[in-house]
Amino acid sequence: MPMTTETEGLRRYVLTVLAVTLTIAALYFGKSLILQLVVSGLLAFLVLPLARGVERRLPRWAGAMVATLVLVLAVLGVFFVIGWQLASFGKDLPQVQERFAEKGDQLLLWVEEQTDVSRREQMSWFNSHLSSFADWGGKAAVKLFSGTGNMLADVAPIPVFIFLMLLLKDRFREFFAQLDGEKEGGVLGIMVRISGLSRKYLKGMITVVLIFGTLCSIGFLSIGLKYAVLLGFLLALLNMIPYVGALAGSLLPVMVALVIHDSLGLAAGALAVVLAVQALDNNFITPKVVGSSVSINPLASLVALIGFGQLWGVAGMLLAIPVTGMLKVVCDSVPGLRPWGYLLGEEIETPKEKRFHLNIGRKRGGAKSGD
């Protein structure tokens, strides 16, 4: 029996919903392996030029090994600096706890003055809820340590994946070429564009983190805020998470100024530093350094941020923008998916896109005149 237009439309709709549902289920239940492969692929794209440069003088395995080692040493260096700053914070931990106790006493006094609830009644209420809070804290600590162990287990294979991807890069290239040849919009062309996009985006974001962290650290040092370097680069890392990271990061130096320094003026100065650096980043640093490597409009970015955050947690929020950018490259390269690529993209068109739409308009105009 031949299908009617309504039946064909319903079949396509059901198949699309089924494909999306199965894809989301696979991303959720296979998130550990998928995250390892996605992160490994992105980092392999980043150090691919280094591996190729070494291969001009040394064997292929040496190029893959050198690129992987350089990447691992760079990551370990970042963790060393963070650990050094955290060790400095640990030395002041008793003083920080004392400051928190003082602020707690001031808060109890303020509540007593505003509500006529005595401090004894407040402490009685607090003690009645302390056991449940301690139980929650114990569960949270167990979850944190077990999660840390799982995270280390997930991170450990990534250098091996990166080395093997770099070592077998020519085999991957030949595999993509054999799928459908060198035709325009083929798999190999898509992967080449994804590789260039990923490399440009990661290099840009690393540069932005270094500039953002340095500017914040200098600003915090100039106003006398403690843990300036730690706070500066922590804000820079949080700033990589669109929308949410910038808001959460701006509260940290303000809390440090209020709790540790007990200074409203210093808190205002810290907030001014954060707002000034964020303004520079939004208007000059990120547009100049990262540019339009990932041309995703704000609505698509927000939806991707929430969706990948629900699927993969914090790692998903960090990967949401580059993964969505890859998806846009695929949509732009496949004729049947180009409307979705247009929906994900920004309003600003590249010269190539302008020529494409201009040609479409001319063809439509010619068709109308022929009619």
In brief, what are we looking at here?
The chain has helices at residues 5-29, 31-55, 60-91, 93-115, 119-155, 158-167, 169-180, 187-223, 228-238, 244-261, 264-289, 298-312, 314-333, 338-344, 351-370. The protein is built from 15 helices and no strands.
Structural descriptors:
single chain, 371 residues, mainly alpha, 15 helices, 86% helix, 0% strand, globular, disordered C terminus
Based on CA inertia axes, which overall geometry fits?
Answer: globular
Q: What distance separates the N and C termini?
A: 35 Å
Radius of gyration: 26 Å
Structural class: mainly alpha
What's the tally of helices?
A: 15
- Share of helix among residues? over 70%
- Following the backbone from N to C, one meets helices and strands in this order, namely HHHHHHHHHHHHHHH
How big a fraction of the residues is strand? under 5%
- What's the multimeric state? single chain
Q: What is the tally of beta strands?
A: 0
* Major beta-sheet overview: none
Mean pLDDT across all amino acids: 77
Low-confidence blocks of residues: 136-148, 367-371
Describe this entry's structure for a reader.
- There is one protein chain.
- The chain has 371 residues and is an all-alpha fold.
- Among the domains are: 31-167, no CATH class; 294-363, no CATH class.
- Helix content is 86%, strand content 0%.
- Mean pLDDT is 77; it is low at 136-148 and 367-371.
